Amino acid sequence: MRIGYGEDAHRLAPGRPLILGGVRVPSPVGPIAHSDGDALLHALTDALLSAVAAGDIGALFPNDDPKNRDRPSREFVAAALARVHARGFRPVEVRGVVVLDAPKLGPHRPAIEAALAELLDLAAEGVGLTFKTSEGLAPHHVQARVFVRLDRL
Ligand code: C5P
Ligand code: MG
């Protein structure tokens, strides 16, 4: 088996859409980013890439390339997944944490977990997410940390 780990953070600003795991979460603030700012999918992308030592999201999709502007983050995950498959592995487990002071993400857990499971073709119990506030330490940020476990195809 292989283990991968990824992190991401984005600064939040009023009036921007908050998208986590590809799911739109109603919120007065959202990430400032070149793409859709989906911190959870960016951390997942890096977790997948690190598991097979295939570089990182910035090496694959430089954020100074206009092609990557406003690109849906599921395309980053798909590219990382293709590299995982090419090396003879598949994801079997995803565990993650999102740190966000507000809004509450708990009500959106089923939708976000299901979206990740679908993206990676995993059973429901293959994805487990927890949510934490920063206790006011990072009130204007969203942060995501993700572990993945791969097995051989
Ligand atoms: O950070 P804290 O320990 O105060 O979070 C308590 C609980 O609030 C978490 O275990 C989680 O269930 C929930 N939570 C949430 N959405 C957030 C942050 C925390 O649902 N954005
Ligand atoms: Mg990001």
How would you explain this protein's 3D organization?
With 153 residues, this protein is an alpha+beta fold. The chain has a single domain, classed as 2-C-methyl-D-erythritol 2,4-cyclodiphosphate synthase (60s Ribosomal Protein L30, Chain: A). 27% of the residues lie in helices and 33% in strands. The protein contains 4 helices and 7 strands, in the order ββββαααβαββ. Strands 4-1-7-5-6 form a 5-stranded mixed sheet. Strands 2-3 form a two-stranded antiparallel sheet. The termini are close together. Residues 100, 104-106, 131-133 line the site of cytidine-5'-monophosphate.
Summary of the model, kept short:
The protein has 153 residues and is α+β, with helices and mostly antiparallel strands.
The string of secondary-structure elements, in order, is EEEEHHHEHEE
Q: List the ligand species.
A: cytidine-5'-monophosphate, magnesium ion
Number of domains: 1
**Which radius of gyration do the C-alpha atoms yield?**
15 Å
**Which percent band covers the strand fraction?**
25-35%
Based on Cα principal axes, name the global outline.
globular
Mean pLDDT: 96
- The CATH superfamily is identified as 2-C-methyl-D-erythritol 2,4-cyclodiphosphate synthase
How far apart the termini lie comes to 10 Å
**Unreliable spans:** none
Q: What share of the residues lie within helices?
A: 25-40%
Number of beta-strand segments? 7
Helix count, per DSSP?
4
Q: Helices and strands: which structural class?
A: alpha+beta
* CATH architecture name: 2-Layer Sandwich
- CATH topology: the name is 60s Ribosomal Protein L30, Chain: A
The order of strands across the largest sheet is: 4-1-7-5-6
CATH class: Alpha Beta
